[in-house]
């Protein structure tokens, strides 16, 4: 669809319009605008002769193709993005002077890129990994980037260790295996020998690292940042994105299967939900600690391996972001977007978190190699929506045509313009923090407690979540060949919890140390996904239907699904249409070959003729996979019979019934619960 005829959603959308090109229906030309009469045959000396050097069209086409690829991101290579808007619920002027956080009348355009960390650009998406959650706010005062993850803490405390962490995590260099996985020797060797990683490892082994959808994960700025108000008062702040649909995960067996059945599972989910108008929404929350309270906690607020328990420092919800537009071109937008934690606006500033300080160098540096030079800020997706003027000039791929002779400061020819702005005019001034100290390569004593919050996280988990963590350690360490590394990891996590260490040590043929454990008893209920929002909205149900189904009942059930926001997709043994006993026709969305139960949130066997042997086998396969993954299962009419015969009924989350309205509402409730873990405990 040409965008020229549609109303632009916001200033960024309108700005991008200038660079959008519609090729459909146009004549094919060279890059010089020359219409070409032929595009399939190179210019040859005779029909069977050699290609001629003169063939400028061939040379141009081939050269461009040969140069199409750019280096992928060193981390977060696999990602997907969408445009959106941020609206502020209430002014935050008590904490910050940032325009987009004080003016509630403004809607700020945003661009969000979600990503995995370890895998390459073509890797699968439901791997066990942290997810990047990077947001660019195109504010009137310049771009502000919140470059966060779906895990609120980080593996290391000092940026100088980042290359080591990433080398250990990425595929091992001698054989480039495994792809997009932390389940290998070098990663766990790094963990055991860098024990500050304990807390983040707990998150990475938890269900948080296998999200159901980008739409159902939290985002965290991770670092403690600084807000500064108009009176120059400063506050420590942590940023949170809270998904309106709640925080939900898949189970590990399912995650691994999805990687094969649909390696694009997460991007497809994001793309489709936006195309269908189910816009993903995230509320922005802040935790604030006044400067004078800096030392009131049992952790250092500058330590990026620590979170601020929400029960101690409440999250104040201040606004909402809605992702409402897919990109037009993945390379131009998603691949070329350049995030940087150093892209700030007046009212937002940094702290001395040593991880944050190092990031402030790395991001520009990486864009220089990745995007080929210093002009990446001119790429359409990166350009601010406010004007920008300075004396920076030239470089590869310069777009801006700066007029006139002056490109230096100070000058008299242009009255010293472009001129700096005073603070009152919106000029950025760094917070006047007092710092003094000796130059040392050292870590503060206050950063040395690596285990208390790892235990806090463990204590906060429900029983199924704890079991999933034990299973994840067992899987990951089961793939580690070095017994010494495995043993070191068992010993390390005995500091977090003996139940945990014993739980997985046994599974990997080792013993937990006889003494260990933690005396931390505190927990933070906000960390458990058991306490998240439960909603049936946008959940996908595989509806298995055979010929001769009960048309009226199915219609009623579909109407309830629709009104509750549940998406029903019909799966059957072949493509085309199915006829109900009353003549009702339904179109089949997927066949048993093209879909799989792991791609759905629930399975409903609606009935009809299920007697064909392979049909029946497929229906049972759908039910058994859904059962194994704790998903809701529904059955009516012949479907109930099939579920009964195969012992699926009489379990939590299995709903059967022929009365359309009771069945539909009970089944929707089971869908909203997401997963029925008590099946695991019986
Ligand atoms: Fe980073 C990319 C998040 C620590 C160096 N990082 C990158 C992206 C996200 C994060 C979401 C992808 C952005 C996009 O979609 O384009 N990184 C984090 C978080 C961290 C963190 C939440 C800890 C709190 N990162 C971190 C450190 C360093 C880097 C300590 C180096 C000192 N990160 C990079 C990078 C990347 C990057 C190499 C790769 C591609 C890019 O920047 O643009 O510079």
Automatic annotation (TrEMBL):
Question: Which cellular component appears as one GO term in the record?
Answer: cytosol
Q: What is its EC number?
A: 1.11.1.6
Query: Catalase core domain: from which residue to which, for each copy?
Result: 29-417
Statement: the UniProt record of this protein carries the keyword Iron:
yes
* Reported cofactor(s): heme
Catalytic residues, per the record, are 76, 149
What CDD domains does this protein's entry cite?
catalase_clade_2 (cd08155), GATase1_catalase (cd03132)
Q: Does this entry carry the keyword Iron?
A: yes
> Pfam families, per this entry?
Catalase (PF00199), Catalase-rel (PF06628), Catalase_C (PF18011)
Q: Where is the composition biased (Basic and acidic residues)?
A: 1-26
Query: Which GO terms of type biological process are on file?
Result: hydrogen peroxide catabolic process; response to oxidative stress
Task: Show the segment(s) annotated as Disordered.
Answer: 1-33, 513-532
Give the position of the cross-link 3'-histidyl-3-tyrosine (His-Tyr). Answer: 340-363
The protein's matches in PROSITE patterns, at most eight in alphabetical order, are given as: CATALASE_1 (PS00437), CATALASE_2 (PS00438), CATALASE_3 (PS51402)
* Catalysed reactions, as listed in the record: 2 H2O2 = O2 + 2 H2O
The source's superkingdom equals Bacteria
Task: Enumerate the Gene3D superfamilies for this protein.
Answer: 1.20.1370.20, 3.40.50.880, Catalase core domain
MF terms from GO for this chain are: catalase activity; heme binding; metal ion binding
Detail which positions bind heme: 73, 113, 162, 359, 363, 370
Name the InterPro entries for this protein.
Catalase, Catalase_AS, Catalase_clade2, Catalase_clade2_helical, Catalase_core, Catalase_haem_BS, Catalase_immune_responsive, Catalase_large_C
Question: What are the transmembrane regions?
Answer: none
Q: What does this protein do?
A: Decomposes hydrogen peroxide into water and oxygen; serves to protect cells from the toxic effects of hydrogen peroxide.
Alphabetical list of PANTHER family matching this protein? CATALASE, CATALASE-B
Give the record's family classification: Belongs to the catalase family. HPII subfamily.
Name by which UniProt lists this protein: Catalase
